[in-house]
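Quick entry, no commentary yet.
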Amino acid sequence: MTRASSKKYFIKTYGCQMNVYDSQRMAEALSVAGYQPVDAPEHADMVILNTCHIREKAAEKVYSELGRLKPLKQANTDMIIGVAGCVAQAEGEEMIHRAPLVDMVFGPQTYQQLPNMISDLDAGRRDGARVRLVRTEFPAEEKFAALNAAPRQPITRAPTAFVTVQEGCDKFCTFCVVPYTRGAEVSRATTDIVAEVQALAAQGVCEVTLLGQNVNAWQDRETGLRLDGLLDALAQISGIERLRFTTSHPRDMDDALIAAHGHNAKLMPYLHLPVQSGSDDILKAMNRRHTRAQYLDLVAAFRAARADLALSSDFIVGFPGETDADFDATMDLVAAVSYAQAFSFKYSPRPGTPAAEHETQIDEDIKTRRLAQLQARLNAQQEAFNREKLGTVLPVLFEKPSRQADQMSGRSPYLQPVHVGVDARHYDALMGRILPVRITAAHANSLSGELADG
């Protein structure tokens, strides 16, 4: 099978919501070039792995996946195999050397060049040569300009969408690879973001989540508008009923964005505000640029602006040099804040980061024990938050049929999954609507309910 006869592609996405967005934009670029999606690499003549470099052994997992693709490449030598994303950015030329089946390696700031890369590969093959491409520059403005020129194509009927408004990071936390794989902080222009969201609203999207590595660092370079003003502008778009943003850095939080949670009715009462540790010593070692007290002051300010705000966070346990007292400080902070949801991980060294060179690495068994303790407390808080909703009526955005028959799934304003008993004949009528649901059961990670009268 050749691309001329099929033009089929398969994209496998790893990692964060921004990678999901990037994969969608790659799919749109391929669609414009005449390619059609398929649901398995066996049916494709182009396979792209959009990779994430945050977790431990990320590169090795990608190489393992490439090993599974090797028989497909051997059976169809015309197949194009590409590796995109942050592992591609970090590995660069090394990936070409270690995995000879790979035809193109491109970072998260260069995927807008995908159609041109494919043309270059095809031109080389017509000349009887095998071309292998590595594109890992950081032309973020060029990427955003390309995104603005290419209108969003409807991918699914989903009533929700991600929109990247900011990329990169200037904070250089000592454990993190993002500044090295995504580059410096760059913000898209207000007019371009508004145009994209208007196009999504015209397709039936009613909830938009703004994405950025440090999304609250977003600022329009021409007007100086900050994120609160952007959210106000998006709230005026007809058809947009819900707005969210992620991920925030405490250092970039300002009073206007805090106040927006009190006056912007379309901004949902959910905030992801990573802290990583409750110990000032560890926060300093991480180069987080804020203290425990400053973080707690932010939490208090947000809750003063919106009393029912659901807070989420990220935690790392076993960071180099973390003592029992440091870990106890994290547990105390969790108790003080009471989170609706949180994500917690054992520290794993990322090559090239300062923390990886720290002399005082923590034993794996200590990390495991601390993570279990932390997750037990966080899980208990999440379950308690869910139980608080029992008997209440929440506006639920219906997103898709559930795996269980005669049931649909949606999201509460607090981002909780909500499963609602619905006759399958009514799925289409309910899709994308926000309706009152009476909560009848609370689970560890979700809620169940029934449509409320009226």
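second:
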Amino acid sequence: MNPAASVIVPCYNEADTIGLLLEAVARQDIGRDRLEVVIADGMSEDRTRQVIQDVAAHYKDLRVRIVDNPDRSIPAALNRAVEAATAEVLIRLDAHSIPSDDYVRRCLEALKSTGAANVGGAWEIRPRGAGWVARAIARAASHPLGAGDARYRIRGAPGPVDTVPFGAFRREWIERVGPFDETLLTNEDYEFNYRLRRAGGRVWFDPSIRSTYFARSRLSELWAQYARYGYWKARMLLRHPASLRWRQALPPVFVALTAAGLAAAAWSPPARWLLGIQWLAYGVVLVGAGLVAALRFKDGPLIVGLPAAWLTMHFAWGLSFWWGLVEGLLGRKRE
């Protein structure tokens, strides 16, 4: 008998966290016998596969399979996992996430009750490390200054949204709109949800569907993550320009205004004043929000850590967005 749901997981060198994910899947309250887990592994070079095999041996009634993903990209991993999965309902999870014990059941219930094409829930974002920088990054990622209006990060009301993290969807939608785009090394989930919405499907946010996501622990890692997001967002927008949301446009606009202000300030005193006012206002907003958070959570280092994290997010995203846009346009010209 086919399982009620297939949990599909892209994975590469996740020995530290893949076991925690599988333990969480094994605790799902719908029962292990109604689930299968398909892990598309990018030929991991650490102990990832051994950890998977050890957990699978412990939970003999949980079907766990590993499929090879020699391309190593996330969209390729998702497509290989979808091909290997046997259930009609596919539930994506990541190797560094931990779903709540009722996660799968609530996904299935939401799909049935809403008729949505894809459903997902809220992240509880936690620090991956113990230091004050890691705490600040986790807080920054769940604040409107770091997440905009993304409901899955800021815990909004249930309803239709542009995207959800991970997601649970029926196989028929893959057959209708096509697989994940393997030319996008990041942002493949947003692009997939955009195609779902254009085909008449709804993407539904349900805050009762909960999972824990572990944020980056260092600013250098945060920069690399958001630079990747910005670059591939721009590449996606060259194909789907109507998918741009205001929260995604703000960092590139701010970076462009800063660059223009610096260029003009060399010869224009008014430009210097405008640039100074722009950065003064920006600094007041970041520091003010950091102060409020530090008082709210009784965590003094947030006064410094949050502005540093938001600055990193905004400029990594904004600069890489322009890089991706220019590179994509030049590539089109060459073609």
